[in-house]
Amino acid sequence: MSTSTPPSVKPEHIRNLSIVAHIDHGKSTLSDRILELTGAVSPRDMRDQYLDSMDIERERGITIKAQNVRVQWKGYTVHLIDTPGHVDFSYEVSRSLAACEGVVLLIDAAQGIEAQTLAHAYLALEHDLEIVAVVNKIDLPAADPDRCAAEIESVLGLPAAEILRVSAKTGQGVPELLDAICERIPPPKGDPKAPLQALIFDSYYDQYRGVVSAVRVVNGSLSAGSKLRFMQTGRAHEVEEIGVRLPASRPVESLGPGEVGYLIAGIKDVGEARVGETVTEVSHPSESALEGYQEPKPMVFCGLYPVDGDEFEALRDALEKLRLSDSSVSYQPETSPALGFGFRCGFLGLLHMDIVRERLEREFNLSLIATAPSVEYVAKLTDGTEERLHSPAEMPSPQRIQVIEEPFIQATMLLPTEYTGTVMELCQSRRGELMRMEYLSPERVEVVYRLPLAEVVMDFFDALKSRTKGYASLDYEPAGFAPGELVKIDILLNGVPVDAFSAIVHRGDMVAYGRRMTEKLRELIPRQLFDVPIQASAAGKVIARETVKAKRKDVLAKCYGGDISRKRKLLERQREGKKRMKAIGRVEVPQEAFIQALRMGD
Length: 602
What we know:
By secondary structure, the protein is of the alpha+beta class. The protein has 14 helices and 31 strands.
């Protein structure tokens, strides 16, 4: 592709913005209409969810990775970043906002303000960004844009008269929205003569070209062919190509202050172009780095093991490459007597964990077993030290533990008022503590609970949705640690503990968990030549037991009549053989049993 040089864009004609909203409020559809209206994509090439490039995004109908594109509108250059809406991907949103001066806050005209709408609005206010509020889906029969606008004014304080009404599906009101973006969102500030400072806000790995980074130039200008220093790692690299996404990649000669584009510098080591890195020129370096991002804190942990032990190194490479585009994944090696070599991985939530596992299996052609999800506990020991536990296997012996603390979250739920009772009952059953309750309007209420994270990670979201017929929305943030009555449950097969099935649970739930696990394993473990007891033990006591009955070979098949003592002798010999076999026999647990027993959400 020949390098073309568009005339350098003046900062006063640049607008950088993110589209933020609750999940399924129409961000990707609005991006599609903007691409269509500005002529960035020809009608022949247009498809739904144009910016969602991963197969998994199209299948699930959700955005996982933030995507950026440059469009032209009435003499303005608009850099548009489409962001995810799910609570697990808030980190992607916060990274995108650092590259913007404003946001388009999208609200569904039928559903009104949801939990993530508030979370993203507060995030934009923290970054001191201009908010353009938009009521979307006004073409729906259930739409009530006036009620929605009044709700936005009372909750967020944005004047109802300034709130735009659009239908991203039909395109109604989208030209007026583009005009409002150009009028209301301020141009970027930046000094073109200052030393180069550019922020990497996203990266992915291309097997032919190495690391491709999305950059936002803050000061100075980034030119093709120049030598760059990555300020955190201290490494220097020569620029191979810089360009912009229109949405097809197009190389350019330079990017000035406020411009967003991509950078390829032949980097093969994924650790050298981390997200949040500041790029400057070797010949005329900047003295200070830009403010990067806070490292995301994993909230849910699970073990990932390759089904085929030979794929351990392939899994390590895959995790390293995936972490480049999703730096919120953390991992460290661990071993399990039952599952072999694998990694203990940390995620921002259950959906994030599910998506990462699926991406590893699809993009890197791996076959994986995921252990049951757990959260991080803090054990304060009798010798005055403390240990952070990411898996049940790390739990010290009960004699050494003084107290165990578990993580709590502050969960904000928005729901129709008629479901208040059922949601409060759900939260109380999960050891929740009511913090506050506020009526946003006669029909909608905001309920805030403090809940143990361990009670939320399994199936809380599903239970919340089913009890409110899908109308409730959930957002949460960490709320520290507190002591809890927690015990470790071990599952023993034929008297031998299997670490893959261990769990840390609240004392009140231990019997139910033990019974559920033993019953499930009784169905999954095939019959052996001897009885296999399956026991759940906690605090030194067996709390549940099931038995897989032995197969029985018919040793009397050849005895046609004859003396009864002959039959007794054969049965006695069989019994003796089984006893001996049981003493030395190791229970065969097929791979499928592990996968079924550890299935997430069960």
